[in-house]
Amino acid sequence: MKKKILETASEMFLNYGFKSVTMDDIAEKMHVSKKTIYTHYSNKNKLIEETTLELYEYVSSGINFICKKKNNSIEEFFQIKTFILENIKFEKSSTVYQLQKYYPKIHENLICKHFDVIKDYLTNNLLRGIDDGLYREEIDVEFITRIYFNGLNGINDSKRFSLDTFNQDYLLKTYLDYHVRGIATEKGLQTLKKVQNQYN
């Protein structure tokens, strides 16, 4: 039952927002009493914490699986983009905003965990890209890692990038193009073009 509650809550939170969905809504969706949910989760905060942790673990596992394939570093970006789009769908632009505004501690904890994953993945990606001649040798890996991470969080800002105007696919695709072009060699730009044709 606990797993079913988590699955239902996760789906509803991602579709409608963390603040918008109530424990009553989840109980109604599952056709159970609210008391049943409170038996497993003492309050909504606990449920949101576990939901975001589960999401973090899922994304981390997906990224690790893709990285093990050892494709070229530019294609790896696009494979991860595809994984995110197919599995983590924020149907409403308020989802991330609500988490940040109403549950700041949970949001900050998720951001810290996310950065740990991105930092390790991106550092390896950049160093491999340099070795393969796809990225310029002089790029500052530490700086690029942080700029990339901040940019990812930036395009999730619903105040500036409303999903009513910019869909997820467009935002990720355009951001990846922007990122790679800023660090690529001529060989990297040629590879980028081939990968874009493959994944578009």
Topology:
Blueprint: H1 2-16, H2 23-30, H3 34-40, H4 44-67, H5 73-87, H6 94-102, H7 104-131, H8 141-155, H9 168-183, H10 186-199
Helix pairs in contact: 1-4, 4-5, 4-7, 5-9, 5-10, 6-7, 7-8, 8-9
Structure overview:
The mean pLDDT is 92. This protein has helices spanning 2-16, 23-30, 34-40, 44-67, 73-87, 94-102, 104-131, 141-155, 168-183, 186-199. The chain has ten helices and no strands. It starts with a helix and ends with a helix. Helix 1 (2-16) packs across helix 4 (44-67), helix 5 (73-87) runs parallel beside helix 10 (186-199) and helix 6 crosses helix 7. Helices cover 76% and strands 0% of the residues. The chain is an all-alpha fold. The longest helix has 28 residues, at 104-131.
Structural class: mainly alpha
Number of strands: 0
Major beta sheet summary: none
Unreliable segments of 5+ consecutive residues: none
**Arithmetic mean pLDDT:** 92
- Beta strand %: under 5%
Question: How many helices does DSSP assign?
Answer: 10
Report helical residue fraction: over 70%
| Radius of gyration based on Cα positions | 19 Å
Distance between the termini: 40 Å
Shape: elongated
Indicate the multimeric state. single chain
Short structural summary:
Helices cover 76% and strands 0% of the residues. The termini are far apart.
Keywords, separated by commas or semicolons:
10 helices; single chain; 200 residues; mainly alpha; elongated
